Amino acid sequence: MAKNSNSIEANSLRPAPIRKFTGPIRRFLHVEASSGIVLMICTVVALICANSAWGNAFHDFWETTVHLGVGDWNLDRPIHFWVNDALMTIFFFVVGLEIKREIVDGELNSLKKASLPIMAAIGGMVVPAATYFAIESGTRGARGWGIPMATDIAFVVGVMALFGPRVPFGLKIFLLSVAIADDMGAVLVIAIAYTEQLNMVALALCACGLATTITLNKLGVRSVAVYVIVGVPTWFAVYKSGIHPTIAGVMLGLLTPTRAWLSTDSLYRVMAEILKSGRAEQNAPLEVSESELLVFAARESVSPLMRLESRLHPWVGFFIMPLFALANAGVEVRAEAIQDEVAIAIALSLVFGKVLGIGGFSYIAVKLGIAQLPAGVNWSMIWAAGMLGGIGFTMSLFVAGLAFKGPQDLIDASKTGIILGSATAAILGALMLWYSLPKGKPKTEEPPTA
User: Fold this and answer.
1) What's the rounded Cα separation, in Å, for the pair 332 and 412?
2) Is the Cβ–Cβ distance between 325 and 91 less than 8 Å?
3) 350 has pLDDT over 70
4) Exposure of 374 by Cβ count < 10 A (0-12 exposed, 13-18 middle, 19+ buried)?
5) Theoretical Cys-Cys bridge with 240: which of 61, 125, 138, 202, CB 3.0 to 4.6 Å?
């Protein structure tokens, strides 16, 4: 009788195979929807502070110098730097994890599945950039063409969350895949277009750091502390190379293993052996060696990528991105900034360029027969998704800081354009989505989890 009971317990712990694919997506969407609200609150707080009597004090706070040093070596940088260049490296590390997960096990792991979101992402980058460049070509603001290329998935998912189960799962996956493919393009733009001068010695040191990471992976080293020890100097090498240091986060994320050290079958066998011992019925404590074996098997049956993504994603969504918004969205709203050509070009590119790029390229891909619409998704939803793609915010603010490092008026104008364009895209996208979604629960839902 004990054997049957133990067998039932062991089998009850075996998850349905579909959870391997839907579980990460459900967790991702849940965190993004909630963090989007926090991000919005921090943006409003930053705008209020910047336009209040405490505006100068608010700005001065982010310029307060923080000293980090060991012996004769030191790095003195303002808080703004530590947020944008250091903490945001963790954000980009998670971006790298998400990109690799989608390429290996997700919606980008085959040409058939990836063709629609990739085409949509290409359109969502090319058309806004071309729109901006057409307006600003030959002016001092021309360098900002990369600003309207990005999509802020946290805000997008936050808007979709307002409609609850009316949003088809296929549309969520489409937008998520577009945003991740979009991130890949944004990373390339940051690494190539906004890198002015390269330090080859520092690049060689960066290559050594990455090679060490690969070697540790091959040797089966699983200690996060060891990779942090290797990752910090790698980040510093990228910083000294002339490439933005956050690219180190993406590279390290892409090197993270997607396969678990132990198979789930190994975990089940270990659990079965413990259950067979009869301790489960007797309530007897496990021996230390058995407890350690269970902990090891449970931990190593989950891939490093999944383990790191699940741990870091909440920190990124609820701490790093909101802190980034506080540090960067605090722009003084002035009439001259709103009327500036750069602000107008960014806003128009986000609102019109994104919807035309995502919707138009999706239409072309489907008509050419190289892609098909997700189940339960119609063209009205795709155009609404394209409009929501115009919410650039986090990545757009980040690129703006790289594009306009000098004149403050350009930085203020670009931030104003990003906020206005993103807000307009969010409102119009929500209205379009409300109109296009079915009034009841959609027929095509997320695959069952049991």
Assistant:
1) 7
2) no
3) yes
4) buried
5) 202
Give the residue among 129, 163, 199 at the shortest CA–CA distance from 349. 129
Distance CA 168, CA 145 (A): 33
Listed in sequence order, the DSSP H helices in 71-110 are: 79-81, 88-105
Computed on alpha carbons and rounded to an integer, the radius of gyration of the chain in Å comes to: 24
Please state, in angstroms and rounded to a whole number, the distance separating the CA atoms of residues 360 and 81: 38
Q: Which is higher by pLDDT, 162 or 377?
A: 377
Asked if residue 330 lies in contact with residue 111, where contact means CB atoms within 8 angstroms, the answer is no
Helix 341-348 to helix 111-136 angle, to the nearest 10 degrees?
A: 160
pTM of the model: 0.76
| DSSP reduced 3-state for 303 | coil
> Rounded distance, CA 71 to CA 87, Å?
24
- DSSP H or E stretch at residue 77: strand 73-78
Q: Give the Å distances, CA to CA, from 147 to 159, 267, 375.
A: 21, 47, 32
**Residue 84 per-residue DSSP state:** I
Chain segment 50-59, per-residue pLDDT in tens: 888 888 899 8
What average pLDDT does the chain have? 82
**What is the percent of the chain with per-residue pLDDT over 90, rounded to a whole number?**
29
| Tokens linked to 5 | 């009971």
For residue 40, give the nearest of 157, 181, 193 by alpha carbon: 157
Amino acid 224 reads: V
Beta carbons within 8 Å of 340's beta carbon, 6+ residues apart: 409, 413, 416, 417
Q: Using an 8 Å Cβ cutoff, are 52 and 330 in contact?
A: no
Collapsing DSSP states into helix, strand and coil, what is residue 78? strand
Query: Nearest 5°: CA angle at 250, between 242 and 179?
Result: 115
Query: Which pair of tokens denotes residue 167?
Result: 């949003």
All domains of the chain in start order, with CATH: 10-87+112-170+327-436 (1.20.1530.10)
The three-state secondary structure class of 66 is strand
- Residue 336 pLDDT > 60, yes or no? yes
Q: How confident is the model at residue 1 (pLDDT cuts 50, 70, 90)?
A: very low
- Measured in degrees and rounded to the nearest 5, phi and psi for residue 392 equal -85, -45
